[in-house]
């Protein structure tokens, strides 16, 4: 191996690590973009969600706001769960957040604290439209973690009854050790932060996560539920998703259905075991046992 090739290797490793990290987050958190994403309002209202004329019922008095994951959007992440909740009588809404200039459809890449500000404004919009005093939040991946910043630092605890995180990266991820490759190369993290700060914020040990988790995982007055799968290949180790503190319920889908093999993508997009458990978390007074045959 010549000297030029030898010197180039660390940077090749860095480029490979950065590319693989983005792919790992994206491939496992975002559905394939559909035409619906370009006409989100029409597509979702016709399917029964994002209908701002919806008024919560006595049975389900709080609107549900769905918070997509990294590289997801307000439509594609929720093509299964949103209709599932609408069919159960909920007013359901979803937002786009964390957009980068020049990057359509794939969101959740901006700084997570700024994304939380977008969530705050969106919750206010939903509460004003529905007349409700509080909302419930259901998020996938980053969408299950980012709202905790809203609850803790932006006054969200007064407006949110429950937060349900499906495969949330509450304590960050090492993406099965991939992030350690970035640490080996000086400047690689700074490059990732400039390219996609929302990814950098989700790496275990990031300044953002240290600030988020300092002083405890939860805030008073909000019920927290985490729904995880042991086959998660993106938020690793999977137990890092779980929260500690009062008003917390941590759920592993394999404890409810041992044959469930969903990974990070499947649990958020198509897993009826996870969906049923999310519905239980939204209405614990009428919860029913979750099994492999739950629908």
Topology:
Layout: H1 3-27, H2 40-46, E1 64-67, H3 81-86, E2 92-95, H4 112-130, E3 135-140, H5 142-153, E4 160-166, H6 179-183, H7 188-195, H8 197-200, H9 207-213, E5 223-228, E6 248-252, H10 253-256, H11 264-269, H12 272-282
Helix pairs in contact: 4-5
Uncertain runs: 1-20, 27-32, 35-39
Mean pLDDT: 87
Structural class: alpha/beta
- Major β-sheet, in short? 6 strands, parallel
Helix content percent band: 25-40%
Gross morphology is globular
| Oligomeric state as shown | single chain
CA gyration radius, whole angstroms? 19 Å
User: Could you tell me how far the N terminus lies from the C terminus, measured between alpha carbons in angstroms?
Assistant: 58 Å
What do these coordinates show?
The chain has a six-stranded parallel sheet, with helices on both faces. The protein is built from twelve helices and six strands. The chain is of the alpha/beta class. α3 (81-86) links the parallel β1 and β2. The protein starts with a helix and ends in a 13-residue tail after the last helix. The radius of gyration is 19 Å and the shape is globular.
């Amino acid at each position: 191996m010549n000297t030029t090739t030898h010197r180039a290797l660390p940077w090749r490793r860095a480029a490979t690590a950065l590319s693989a990290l983005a792919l790992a987050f994206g491939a496992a958190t975002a559905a394939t973009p559909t035409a619906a994403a370009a006409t989100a309002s029409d597509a979702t209202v016709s399917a029964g969600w994002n209908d701002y004329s919806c008024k919560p019922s006595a049975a389900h008095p709080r609107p549900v706001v769905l918070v997509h994951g990294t590289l997801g959007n307000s439509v594609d992440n929720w093509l299964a769960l949103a209709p599932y909740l609408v069919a159960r009588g909920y007013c359901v809404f979803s937002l786009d957040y964390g957009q980068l200039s020049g990057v359509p459809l794939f969101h959740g890449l901006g700084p997570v604290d700024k994304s939380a500000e977008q969530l705050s404004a969106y919750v206010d919009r939903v509460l004003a439209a529905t007349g409700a005093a509080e909302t419930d939040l259901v998020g996938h991946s980053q969408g299950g973690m980012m709202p905790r910043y809203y609850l803790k630092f932006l006054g969200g605890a007064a407006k949110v009854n429950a937060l349900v995180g499906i495969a949330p990266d509450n304590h960050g991820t090492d993406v099965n050790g991939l992030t350690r490759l970035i640490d080996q190369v000086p400047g690689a993290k700074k490059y990732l932060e400039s390219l996609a700060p929302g990814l950098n914020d989700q790496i275990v040990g990031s300044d953002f996560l240290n600030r988020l988790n300092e002083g405890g995982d939860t805030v008073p007055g909000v019920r927290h539920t985490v729904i995880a799968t042991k086959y998660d290949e993106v938020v690793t180790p999977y137990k890092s998703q779980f929260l500690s503190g009062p008003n917390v319920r941590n759920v592993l889908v394999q404890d409810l259905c041992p044959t469930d093999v969903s990974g990070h993508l499947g649990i958020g997009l198509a897993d009826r075991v996870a969906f049923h458990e999310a519905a239980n978390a939204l209405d614990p007074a009428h919860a029913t046992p979750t099994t492999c045959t739950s629908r």
